[in-house]
Amino acid sequence: MLAPLGHAIDLGAQARHVLLIGEGTRIVQLIALAHASVTQDREVVLVNRGEDVFPAHWLSPEIEYRTDDAWSTELLAWADVIVTSGSEELYRALADAIRAPRYRLEPGFARVFVDVPMPCGTGACYACAVETTRGIQLACADGPAFDLIEFENRRVR
Fold first, then answer.
1. How would you classify the pairing of strands 110-113 and 81-85?
2. Domain CATH for 47
3. Which among 84, 87, 137, 138 has a CA at the least distance from the CA of 111?
4. CA 133 to CA 49: how far, in whole Å?
5. C-alpha to C-alpha distance for 51 and 108, rounded to whole angstroms
6. How many domains does the chain have?
7. pLDDT for 39
8. What does pTM read for this prediction?
9. Tens of pLDDT, residues 57-72
């Protein structure tokens, strides 16, 4: 599946259980990924952490929609991959929550959407630069989804 700009979001061939976590209206960024995952015979749980403004009846019946706690040990242990869209506070809390049942945050396990302006869409203007553990990355060219490990301590430029 292609993201708004940048690279396709590859969940990996081994990912059978997909946990998608959105915060309020940012859940909309995850809907297409949820439907694409279902067509690839993956089990999908979509969690809305925040104001429940999403009409869940628009989702495919194969997608489990929740508005409860995404940090449950059971749900985090069930997931093979996590993709989330929300605030930096959500990302920090997610990293801490993952470390509890899994003891460490593994590369490739959790991805986050960067919510920065992308005026040119090509990386020429450098407005979407974000700092990651690999150095400066451009959300429109290298993202907009980054590994949570790379993104955890980033600063927007």
1. parallel
2. 3.40.50.80
3. 84
4. 27
5. 28
6. 1
7. 92
8. 0.84
9. 778 899 999 887 767 8
